UniProtKB/TrEMBL annotation:
<keyword id="KW-1003">Cell membrane</keyword>
<keyword id="KW-1133">Transmembrane helix</keyword>
<feature type="transmembrane region" description="Helical">
    <location>
        <begin position="12"/>
        <end position="31"/>
    </location>
</feature>
<feature type="transmembrane region" description="Helical">
    <location>
        <begin position="321"/>
        <end position="343"/>
    </location>
</feature>
<feature type="domain" description="Major facilitator superfamily (MFS) profile">
    <location>
        <begin position="1"/>
        <end position="195"/>
    </location>
</feature>
<feature type="domain" description="Major facilitator superfamily (MFS) profile">
    <location>
        <begin position="232"/>
        <end position="423"/>
    </location>
</feature>
<feature type="transmembrane region" description="Helical">
    <location>
        <begin position="173"/>
        <end position="191"/>
    </location>
</feature>
<dbReference type="InterPro" id="IPR020846">
    <property type="entry name" value="MFS_dom"/>
</dbReference>
<keyword id="KW-0472">Membrane</keyword>
<dbReference type="GO" id="GO:0022857">
    <property type="term" value="F:transmembrane transporter activity"/>
</dbReference>
<feature type="transmembrane region" description="Helical">
    <location>
        <begin position="51"/>
        <end position="70"/>
    </location>
</feature>
<protein>
    <submittedName>
        <fullName>MFS transporter</fullName>
    </submittedName>
</protein>
<keyword id="KW-0813">Transport</keyword>
<feature type="transmembrane region" description="Helical">
    <location>
        <begin position="298"/>
        <end position="315"/>
    </location>
</feature>
<keyword id="KW-0812">Transmembrane</keyword>
<feature type="transmembrane region" description="Helical">
    <location>
        <begin position="82"/>
        <end position="99"/>
    </location>
</feature>
<dbReference type="InterPro" id="IPR036259">
    <property type="entry name" value="MFS_trans_sf"/>
</dbReference>
């Protein structure tokens, strides 16, 4: 039987294929960033901000719930099977976005997209963590999220360009058809399962840096431990939720806010693209940095940088286009700081024997943030105007950073261990 070894160098080929797969996974979310809110406003003539943001709420809630069960499903059916299932569920999405005759079709497509993302993105995260072991965990998460969110941003830019040239539908969504076919074929024929790597690491760690031991708990126990009983995991989970609250708010608010301020579709496309592109590319740096200086400093200061980005946009310190671009750069930098560090911190604190389930719980709370951000933005925008949604997001982001500062202890192991075995 083939020798199983942990490490990036030892598993670089599979790691590269998973990075490519996650580019296609992220690109599916990027399809919606620029165009879909404008489809609701201009094509379907929806006047309520909260109703327009309903597609984000549907996506966030469904993705969060799918994240919650994805780890348990992976342990039962293997990581690869769940990855393939994610792509199969996502196949109808670009067709529904391109030709759906009513807004209900757009919401239904986001239900499918949420399931697809919850399965596929969760598996690319778990599989990379399985492959690299504890030594390069931050680096692995940096590359994974860089690939996914870099594709989100570039696709948002591409759809904005296509929409300005050929209309809001269907041209911008042709890209999604290519993504789903390529991602599915790679997942079936190229990607290998990694569950044996996780079993190998589990045999080498008796207790995590948070004192967690090896055992086989049920999902209810893992949910309580990750959500509130373990102080480190609680701090990480609430920071993930607020981080994606920002993303959910910006997803719905920014296109409407900047179009109303006189920014054209291409300009909106740049604003929507620069946030995830900086977010994605920055993680190539912040992921390894999390392995050098620890997880906590990046999480705390990343939340504070995001709060400053909201100030730049909300107070309109520059012309609308430049305020949007500069503020989005700050949001991207701040998110790049926290994202790999948050995932690495969960992986540090949860024992490998139940890590996949704990990551699922963390990603449940994180992606509920999409829905909470959209709900908050819709209510605040209807009552006080779109810009106040930006202000509120900035305030809660700053508070979240303070919570991590007070509650979290550093989770990174002081030394790394190289493990080899035959399983």
């Amino acid at each position: 039987m083939k020798e199983i070894r942990l490490g990036l160098k030892e598993n670089w080929q599979q790691f590269v294929w998973l990075v490519l797969v996650n580019c296609f996974v992220g690109g599916m979310v990027g399809l919606e960033r620029t165009v879909v809110p404008l489809v609701g406003m201009e094509e379907f003539k929806i006047g309520s901000d909260l109703f327009i943001f309903s597609f984000i709420i549907a996506f966030g809630v469904v993705k969060a719930i799918t994240n919650l069960v994805s780890g348990a499903l992976a342990d039962r059916y293997t990581r690869k099977k769940i990855l393939i299932a994610g792509w199969l569920v996502g196949l109808p999405v670009p067709f529904m976005l391109a030709w759906g005759p009513t807004w209900a079709w757009i919401i239904a497509s986001n239900v499918l997209l949420g399931i697809s993302q919850g399965l596929a993105w969760s598996m690319t995260v778990n599989m990379k963590i399985d492959l690299v072991g504890p030594k390069k965990r931050g680096f692995a998460m940096g590359l994974n999220e860089a690939a996914g969110y870099g594709a989100v941003g570039l696709t948002a830019l591409a759809t904005g360009y296509l929409a300005s040239r050929y209309g809001l539908r269907p041209a911008p969504f042709y890209i999604g058809i290519l993504y789903t076919i390529a991602g599915l074929l790679l997942s079936i024929f190229v990607v290998s399962d990694t569950r044996r790597h996780a079993k190998l690491e589990s045999t080498s760690i008796s207790t995590t840096t948070s004192g967690e031991k090896a055992h086989k708990p049920n999902l209810s126990w893992v949910f309580r431990e990750t959500s509130f009983r373990n102080k480190n995991l609680f701090a990480v989970s609430q920071a993930g939720l607020i981080n994606n609250l920002n993303d959910g708010m910006s997803w719905g608010v920014f296109p409407l806010l900047f179009v109303a301020a006189g920014v054209g579709l291409e300009g909106v496309g740049w604003i929507k693209a620069i946030y995830p592109v900086v977010w994605g590319a920055g993680q190539v740096i912040t992921g390894p940095l999390a392995d050098r200086i620890g997880r906590k400093p990046l999480i705390v200061w990343g939340m504070f940088v995001q709060a400053f980005g909201h100030i730049v946009i909300g107070l309109e310190l520059f012309e609308p286009l430049y305020a949007g671009l500069f503020g989005s750069v700050l949001l991207g930098i701040g998110t790049a700081m926290v994202y790999p560090a948050l995932l690495a911190a969960v992986s540090d604190a949860a024992h490998p024997s139940w890590r996949a389930s704990s990551l699922g719980v963390y990603r449940f709370w994180r992606d509920i943030g999409y829905a909470m951000g959209a709900v908050m933005a819709g209510i605040v925008a209807n009552l006080l105007g779109l810009v106040w949604a930006v202000h509120v997001a900035g305030i809660v982001t700053f508070i979240s950073g303070v919570v991590v500062w007070v509650k979290m202890k550093e989770t990174m192991r002081p030394e790394a261990v190289t493990v080899r075995a035959k399983i």
